[in-house]
Inverse folding.
């Protein structure tokens, strides 16, 4: 049995693990992310790696990071939330640890984790959608991560859903992310609580969960209320699911995947999300119901997907 | 030097050629397509193949056909315009000719032709869009045709552009094909000629080209008038280009291709199409102008792309 | 008690009646509409009028016609389905009958009928929407028909609902009529029957009602199936109602009417239409639920509205 | 010659004038608006009125205020920016001044001013659109202000332009105001300056006018740059004009007005706004170019329209 290290660099924490060939995490550690401090983050990645490497004889290190990673799996070209610009992350971590390192986009790492050891072990072609603050995406095609000509393929959350639609953080309008992200969910919930007629049901329970302040309603509160049976919360999740399913209908035409895997915080809603997603997907399939198309699954590895996927990708 | 045969099965003709390792067609033949006659079409494919095989010592045959082809490159699962349903085309042609055969989707074949010997020889990741009666698509990723879990990936013309938009022949609404195909172009031209205020300029020249009958305006007439400088015709092509460029903006986020290649009859408009496509693409790029993205090129092999690509794919 | 004659000029029949001051029709007659024959239609209007005038001592005649009527209530400027262009209808009918005549738009006449003697007797401001082959409209404001600067106000079916949306017979795209008319309903029903995935439920019952031919499905068949409980038919009506309610939300902001009255063939669906219309309207009210807004009612005079309204308008 | 007082209650100032029968303002005064202080605002209105009434023998007072005014021209039911809820403004001002008072919606007052003494003196049916922070509207039909069943008609900025479009301050999505207001203009300008690819041209000049801070770009800066010939600024105004013209196309079908009058701060752009508005309107006319439709004019009374209109409406 050989071991590799996976490091998942998130906005609030850096989590690492030693991963065996079967995708099991046999040792873990973590650090807080020193925000906006480029060298501090690299230092923390090195520290996490050293701590784990001291315990097991590891062959290679995979670092999963948000942002645009170059096709050589070596540099972070652009990572908005980490203040990184064209950072030679692979070489810096490798020099400091003496281990071979590869850098991967975090969504790609998570997709690989689910593909190899999680929800999509049985297919060759899968699409991952992570529905959290934004909508992330990654694509495994014919058993390989699809990275694209510049290493930045799979930005599925920025397919345009609505011409001249809602503003997206990316600078365009009408992206999937502007409709189907946790941020959009919360925005709608707060609008409903502020009196918008656009959403049916009463905001009473959501406002109660938010301690009386409509402006404090969060995504987990919407999920909680929906699971209690609250009509407004369920409507909000169903509306998000409708957009997600419509987007997935386009992804079926584009990729013909064997499976969709849905992860991210909003996926905690479980069947309350998945059922209307499948309903919407079914209504957006070109060729009707007479053709095969992808199954839809919830991610099964949770937050471990990034660690496991990065560690395993580093072996390839 | 070894040879293979490529056969391009179109709605009106079946064209075949002997293709060498460098993509050159060294012999050709063609038959009319016996419409709606399943066995007749197979017979014509066989006849074309035999005629060519009698002239050169060929190793393998590639047949490019519209429709859903199975992942085993063997069966035509569904081809609306050819009346084929689950046809074992590979085995039938192989049995009748004594040659090894593979079946490919025609857009995939054309994309492969352009990728290996045409407009996209210099990239590893390309997206082909054929803008004709419909909008076809094919994707080469990391040097391979992307076929998907069921063999039917790359139906790029059926990404949804407009929620609740115009009806598409596929049974859904708002697809790229409903806005950016030659059919949409002609529909708009005829509407303008019938007095719709929605399009600027005068329909006079288009109606003249159509012999006085607005209902006879065709795509080539729009191209001809546009090349003469007609304002309405140029507007119609620019409007189509706007939709195509918007779709391509999404494809950049999804695929991160090295190049787009645009073929099909509407591509005969050349720069009148390409310039506004590039302008629209530039305005639909997530991440703004500070990231690399695909170049846009016109297809260079014309109608030969399908023959050359099918022949070459058969070797792989 | 005084009497007036109302004549309703439809595409298939010309129906007339003698109407008393309370809106009661005390005598009736009708002729088939001589299609596409301008003078024939005028002749039939004259014949209907003479037949009625021979029975009662009438003071005035009101003729309700489709099309653009001039502000002087005298000429039909344009009536696409009747082949009329700038026809001095008032003077022709008056000369032939010796009676004073006024010409009104047929939707205005029907709205006036409902306003004076039907569903909207209790309000001063009402909006009529007739949902039939197209979507007609008429507006009573402060107790008066709103005719506009050129006599052609109230074309409510041509407010744009969807940018770059479905083609409308008027030459534009995305009009209310393209989404919320009986024609749109039938188009969607036939698409569902032809295998479109966009509509939930099975088309089995609709196809059965159409004698096995999906292309023969009609609006009344959809209503019949919906009333039987058929899921697809109910979905189709609910989808139409969603568009209609959204349009009405805009009309609330624009007109602040006291009541909406919905007539036309699709209104035969009754509560199956009205309930989802009210639900959609409620979700499209600017200012939320904390402001007064219009009630929604079904028309009560049926096909008599045009006769009664034209007759009564002629007195004003 | 008799005189009346008009008072225009704005968010930052309360401006009053004595107006003669010909619409001339023969005396003026103003106070700052005591923000969020209900009784303070009423007190300032009273003070303005008393000061003017001391100079001339006036017959009546018209007060124009933002918000929903009841049909009796007496109460402010709801005025979001003034913190008024169901305020008996007429009676309070009348009791304090001893003069008869009427209360009008401020857009209605401005429309009346333009209708009687400004840009629309020659028509009977006009639509006013004020394009400022929001998009206000008012409608004069057959020579009368159209107030609606509850006094709150003419909210033309809240007709829906885009289903599931951009968020509007009213709680809904996709309203005219969300696309064609000064607020939308500024939002787009700032997005362009922040690097959005969605807008052509360079933001350099706009950022310069804003002192180097993209977040400080204002509407007047966009107008200034556009008048200098800046490509981005002109594009932004043209995009706004496209939305406004599309909305006006719907208003033509709905109202058949004799004239549109465009006021508000964005109208300072003059022909840079008006020309593309007319172009867009022309392309959104049901019935094509073969029917009469409204002329489009800039407002001519500027900030005086509210004073003059309120004063004159008070006489009616």
């Amino acid at each position: 049995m050989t071991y590799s290290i996976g490091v998942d660099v998130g906005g609030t924490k850096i989590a690492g693990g030693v991963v065996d060939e079967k995708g099991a995490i046999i040792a873990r550690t973590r650090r807080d992310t020193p925000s906006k401090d480029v060298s501090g983050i690299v230092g923390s990645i090195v520290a996490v790696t050293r701590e784990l490497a001291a315990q097991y004889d590891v062959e290679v290190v995979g670092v999963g990071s948000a942002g645009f990673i170059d096709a050589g799996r070596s540099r972070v070209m652009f990572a908005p939330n980490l203040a990184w610009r064209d950072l030679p992350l692979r070489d810096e971590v490798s020099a400091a640890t003496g281990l071979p390192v590869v850098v991967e986009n975090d969504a790609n790492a998570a997709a690989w984790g689910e593909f190899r050891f999680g929800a999509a072990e049985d297919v060759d072609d899968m699409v991952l959608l992570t529905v959290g603050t934004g909508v992330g995406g990654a694509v495994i095609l014919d058993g390989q991560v699809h990275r694209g000509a510049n290493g930045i393929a799979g930005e599925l959350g920025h397919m345009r859903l609505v011409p001249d639609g809602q503003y997206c953080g990316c600078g365009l309008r009408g992206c999937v992310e502007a409709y189907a992200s946790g941020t959009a969910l919360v925005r709608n919930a707060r609008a409903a609580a502020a009196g918008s007629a656009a959403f049916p049901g009463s905001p009473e329970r959501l406002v109660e969960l938010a301690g009386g302040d409509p402006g404090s309603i969060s995504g987990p509160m919407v999920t909680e209320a929906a699971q209690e049976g609250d009509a407004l919360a369920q409507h909000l999740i169903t509306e998000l699911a409708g957009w997600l399913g419509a987007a997935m209908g386009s992804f079926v035409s584009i990729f013909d995947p064997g499976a969709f895997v849905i992860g991210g915080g909003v996926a905690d809603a479980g069947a309350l999300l998945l059922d209307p997603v499948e309903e919407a997907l079914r209504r957006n399939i070109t060729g009707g119901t007479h053709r095969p198309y992808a199954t839809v699954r919830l991610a099964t590895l949770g937050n471990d997907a990034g660690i496991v996927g990065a560690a395993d990708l580093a072996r390839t």
